[in-house]
């Protein structure tokens, strides 16, 4: 893609959000990542040494990491400077490139037999890719969507189902439903009420 095309895509990309009420909220990002990694651990891998509770916790943190670009925006607002477009919400941290960078330390650690730490990186990559998928599917990141092919192309894709359905309370409901399903699973599988 030539630079003038990239420039025009960037203009539309801007910092407009997809409608803050129509994007997946933090709980959805964190808990859905935690649930998926936990399900993988409990039902497929069945290895609690390689996938400890720490691993699941780290997956959840990484599930939210792409949205740290909102902090850049807040800092820029406070100190009144203009952020480069790629650092605005939905920019570089919402690209597979940003997520896949964490494969490098993961593979190095795996090679040096630091498998537990390598897995932290791998679940991190999964958490961030899942975040991008949710933002693409439901609505989040930049207004125009996710730059799946960055840096080869700055074209953005989105389905943004929640925005298109126009049902504004769904993200809150989604948070609650996901949280309740997870609590139910943890109670069934790990009897968490024993610890309360
Ligand atoms: Zn996001």
Helix and strand layout, with pairings?
Blueprint: H1 3-13, H2 26-45, H3 53-64, H4 69-79, H5 96-100, H6 103-111, H7 115-139, H8 161-165, H9 170-190
Residues 66-67, 94, 131, 135, 140-141 line the site of zinc ion.
Overview of the molecule:
- By secondary structure, the chain is mostly helical.
- The chain has one domain (3-189).
- Helices cover 61% and strands 0% of the residues.
- It contains nine helices and no strands.
- It has helices at residues 3-13, 26-45, 53-64, 69-79, 96-100, 103-111, 115-139, 161-165, 170-190.
- Helix 2 crosses helix 7 (115-139), helix 2 (26-45) runs parallel beside helix 9 and helix 6 runs antiparallel to helix 7.
- The relative contact order is 0.19.
- It binds zinc ion.
- Residues 66-67, 94, 131, 135, 140-141 line the site of zinc ion (ZN).
List of distinct ligands in this structure: zinc ion
User: What is the succession of H and E elements?
Assistant: HHHHHHHHH
Q: Taking all residues together, what is the mean pLDDT?
A: 85
Total domains, how many? Answer: 1
- Helix count from the secondary structure assignment: 9
β-strand number: 0
Task: Give unreliable regions as ranges.
Answer: 7-21
| Head-to-tail CA distance between termini | 56 Å
Rounded Rg:
18 Å
Q: How much strand?
A: under 5%
Shape: globular
């Amino acid at each position: 893609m030539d630079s003038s095309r990239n420039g025009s895509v960037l203009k539309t990309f801007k910092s407009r959000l997809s409608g803050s009420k129509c994007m997946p909220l933090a709980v959805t990002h964190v808990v859905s990542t935690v649930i998926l990694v936990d399900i993988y651990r409990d039902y497929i891998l069945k290895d609690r040494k390689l996938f400890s509770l720490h691993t699941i916790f780290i997956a959840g943190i990484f599930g939210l990491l792409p949205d740290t670009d909102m902090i850049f925006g807040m800092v820029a607002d406070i100190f009144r400077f203009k952020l480069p477009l790629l650092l605005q919400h939905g920019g570089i941290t919402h690209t597979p490139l940003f997520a896949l960078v964490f494969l490098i330390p993961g593979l190095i650690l795996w090679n040096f037999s630091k498998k537990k730490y390598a897995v932290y990186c791998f679940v991190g990559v999964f958490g961030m890719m899942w975040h991008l998928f949710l933002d693409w599917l439901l609505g989040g990141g930049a207004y125009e969507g996710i730059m799946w092919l960055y840096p080869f192309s700055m074209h953005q894709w989105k389905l943004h189902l929640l925005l298109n359905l126009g049902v504004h309370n769904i993200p809150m409901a989604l948070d609650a439903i996901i949280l309740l399903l997870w609590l139910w699973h943890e109670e069934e599988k790990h009897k968490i009420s024993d610890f309360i």
